[in-house]
Batch of 2 targets.
Target 1
Amino acid sequence: MRIGSWNVNSVRTRLTQVLAWLEQERPEVLCLQETKVDDERFPAEAFEALGYACAISGQKAYNGVAILSRLPLEDVQIGFSALLPGDAEAERLEEQKRVISAWIDGIRVLNLYVPNGSAVGSDKYGYKLEWLACLRCYLEAQERQGEPLCMLGDFNIGPEDRDLPDPQRLTGGIMASEPERQALRELLGERLHDVFRVFEPGSGHWSWWDYRSGAWERDQGWRIDHIYLCEELLACATGCVIHRATRGQTQPSDHAPVVVHLAWPPDDEEDEQA
DNA sequence: ATGGCTTAACAATTAAGA
């Protein structure tokens, strides 16, 4: 079983590339962020034609998340309120469409688009920290449900200096400030693990390259798109790959897909050879 | 370089991303 995450920076602008990648890779699940389209205009038919069911939570122009699945897509939950009913903060944060989950083949797949935060100390930075605090509460409620969890998406945080191209210059700034990193560590707790780091401890592995300043040509990226697994799923992980070639295409997204390979369900012999 | 590029919205510029 393979589960991918890709910030596509507009699903309509990127549709041809996403379809081509799906046809080539055929992951069981692909989670999208920054779809930038309301639900009525989401190109579901194009994905359904390739055998993918769609769960979507979008809005006009900004944000927007979706889960595409070749396996049955069940119990779709949208927003923080799904697990925090009556919580005023969860409802307030619902205005921006950044949270969707689904039950797929015995796994709770949680797809997130964490706010960017603009600049340290700005209003948007405050919003980002509030959003992360709400996510922590959401995850505590999720843990009480007892479902195996795969949480993935665009976290807009470089968790450690090895996830940044120039730590000396960038540490402390947006996406690398201690409050953001601490908020992320706290919501992960002892329960959730960055599966990419199980297989690759080194620096120089990026998932996002700025459109500006020739960041791609100079390979000055960040690793801000992550896949986190609970212990039960982590024990089944056989690999985690960043598909960086997509970033080198014409008119690319600034993010590349990240894919985890799981021998799941645990008794599935076919997956264990992956 | 409070810069650089790309997208959506709207119809020439602005907001936002990260």
Target 2
Amino acid sequence: MTTANTWTELLRERRLRVTRQRLAVLDAIAEHPHLSAEAVHAAVVRRLPEITVQSVYTVLHDLTANQLLRRFDPPGSAARYEARTDDNHHHAMCTVCGRIEDVDCARGEAPCLQAPTGLGMEIEAADVVFRGVCRTCVGDRSRQPA
Amino acid sequence: MTTANTWTELLRERRLRVTRQRLAVLDAIAEHPHLSAEAVHAAVVRRLPEITVQSVYTVLHDLTANQLLRRFDPPGSAARYEARTDDNHHHAMCTVCGRIEDVDCARGEAPCLQAPTGLGMEIEAADVVFRGVCRTCVGDRSRQPA
DNA sequence: GTCCCTGCAAACAATTTGCAACCCT
DNA sequence: AGGGTTGCAAATTGTTTGCAGGGAC
């Protein structure tokens, strides 16, 4: 795993201990972005059979709080996690099968939208979720979210 | 309640029966937008002491499915409901106190952002949530979500 | 009178919390 | 050795589901 060294460095930078569990979670999410907590656990138990779902939740929480992961909440389903924390990209979700794709921000700044003014609120960021139907699901609306 | 007649008409248009519970839920949300299901129940029990939280959930689900209400999921907290279904406005959320404000869409169309192309997905709409800190919470970060 | 809707209870899913044992440093 | 982390269990929150009685039409 060529990314292991990078994860180790990043963990050390944040004064976090380098554990097998954290490395496995980071590897799984780097390989398959947009995994839910359950899906992360399913991907990780193959290497660490003793890891529990609760530990995955703890790891995800700690790594998110330390900016190594980014969490986002698709409408109506469980939270997803990804390793791209450096940019301000957004997401597109297929309302039929639940698949999620990254959408690069056209303007490249955060927030990439015109930050609304006169709100009585200082805006720090904007989360954007596009909803639609992906090509595989067009013409086959009987599918269930995967 | 001057809106009662309007609600009655809208319910009849959708072939939905006009019940005290539905009118009370609609009134509560029209008066206080962005209520959660629990908050709707708390607001409604004052007039209908016998209503249960589960009935509120059912009413919210049915009215949302029939376009009388709009549901949206703020990141990390319970679903909220509002009566503005006619336009494509967005939301701004204070990350300190949890308060939510409407943000009118600058372009007035849905989706108001440049719909991304070449995605392998046909985009139908865009949900935008701005995150920030409202004026009352600036300088008092110790507050908890209300 | 018919059938949709409500009330009630139970189940369910996603996530958080408390504590002792463990292992990274 | 010491304290941050994990494993395990239980509790919590938000929401959905199944069914019998009741109210809208």
